[in-house]
Amino acid sequence: MVTGGGSGLGAATVRVLASAGAHVLIVDRNQAAAEVQAAPFENVAVAVADVTHPQQMSEAVEIARSKFGTLDILVNCAGISDPGRVLGKEGPIALERFARVVEVNLLGTFNAIRLAAAVMAANSPSSSGERGVIVNTASIAAFDGQIGQVSYAASKGGIVGMTLPLARDFARHGIRVVTIAPGIFDTPMLAELGEEVRASLAAQVPFPPRLGRPEEYAHLVKAIIENEMLNGEVIRLDGALRMSPR
Ligand SMILES: NC(=O)c1ccc[n+]([C@@H]2O[C@H](COP(=O)([O-])OP(=O)(O)OC[C@H]3O[C@@H](n4cnc5c(N)ncnc54)[C@H](O)[C@@H]3O)[C@@H](O)[C@H]2O)c1
């Protein structure tokens, strides 16, 4: 199951996992985008759901179970950003804006995890006892968030913070939890920033001095799934980028 699989990093993950033979359920609130990604593959299905919604996500997990028999892998890619200074010209930022970013990025990730893990815990274990793998998407903004990124950094910091305790919590079920903290990747989310900002961000990456390709993110997801010793860790995927304040 790949949340946010209708676009960007999630869509690349869908392509890589489906090409490797996995049955994939795209869970996205954007039905049209999800269907475009699913169309080339016989082994990819779509569930329309908002990750923050308990009932919709419960139904999405049920679709995965009924279509594919079980759920082995969850990749959390659904996320939003809503940049803004805390103190703007019109006074303090609306609390709802902060709350929505945290709701989608942090609560949405946790919502998918708790529901998917309940299915994974009932899986037959592999010969080594593994029952499932969960990959989350934070951001390097969790560590070096820029001006205007307070809500985004808080939401991603929450994902970083829950990675180890989740891995510890799920260890007795044989479920691993790993978080990727991407630097700057060439996706529709980043396209919102405009060409000039994108070029300036790309130039700040020590090596390779370019935006990351979504396939490079998806490649790491696959490596995490395949490597059983990776657990409870946050992996920066950023070409050594450490973001400046602005
Ligand atoms: N692109 C980057 O440079 C970058 C860097 C660091 C972290 N990230 C993180 O990677 C993840 C994917 O980002 P992207 O660049 O591919 O973004 P994107 O906007 O291209 O794709 C995000 C997808 O998530 C879906 N989505 C958003 N809110 C949702 C909700 N409430 N319920 C269900 N689906 C929802 C959207 O419909 C979209 O298909 C995000 O969590 C983002 O914060 C991206």
What's the short story on this structure?
The chain is α/β, with parallel strands linked by helices and 246 residues long. It has helices at 8-19, 31-38, 54-68, 95-120, 141-144, 150-170, 188-191, 195-203, 214-226, and strands at residues 2-3, 24-28, 44-48, 73-76, 87-88, 91-92, 132-137, 175-182, 234-237.
Polypeptide structure, described:
There is one protein chain. This protein is of the alpha/beta class and 246 residues long. The chain has one domain: NAD(P)-binding Rossmann-like Domain (Rossmann fold), CATH 3.40.50. It has 9 helices and 9 strands. The strands form 2 sheets. Strands 3-2-1-4-7-8-9 form a 7-stranded parallel beta sheet, sandwiched between helices. A hairpin with a 2-residue loop joins strand 5 (87-88) and strand 6 (91-92). Helix 1 packs across helix 9 (214-226), helix 3 (54-68) packs parallel to helix 4 and helix 4 runs parallel beside helix 6. The longest helix is centred in the middle third of the chain and has 26 residues, at 95-120. The protein is globular and about 55 Å long. Bound molecules: nicotinamide-adenine-dinucleotide.
Uncertain stretches: none
Provide mean pLDDT, rounded: 97
The radius of gyration computed from the alpha-carbon positions, rounded to a whole number of angstroms, is 18 Å
Reported CATH architecture: 3-Layer(aba) Sandwich
Q: What is the assigned CATH homologous superfamily? A: NAD(P)-binding Rossmann-like Domain
| Topology order in helix (H) and strand (E) letters | EHEHEHEEEHEHHEHHHE
Sheet with the most strands: spatial strand order: 3-2-1-4-7-8-9
Measure the end-to-end span: 35 Å
User: How many H/I helical runs?
Assistant: 9
Number of strands: 9
Give the helix level as a range of percent: 40-55%
Percent strand equals: 15-25%
Q: In one word, what is the shape? A: globular
Small-molecule components bound: nicotinamide-adenine-dinucleotide
CATH class: Alpha Beta
Structural class: alpha/beta
CATH fold descriptor: Rossmann fold
Major pleated sheet:
7 strands, parallel
User: How many domains is the backbone divided into?
Assistant: 1
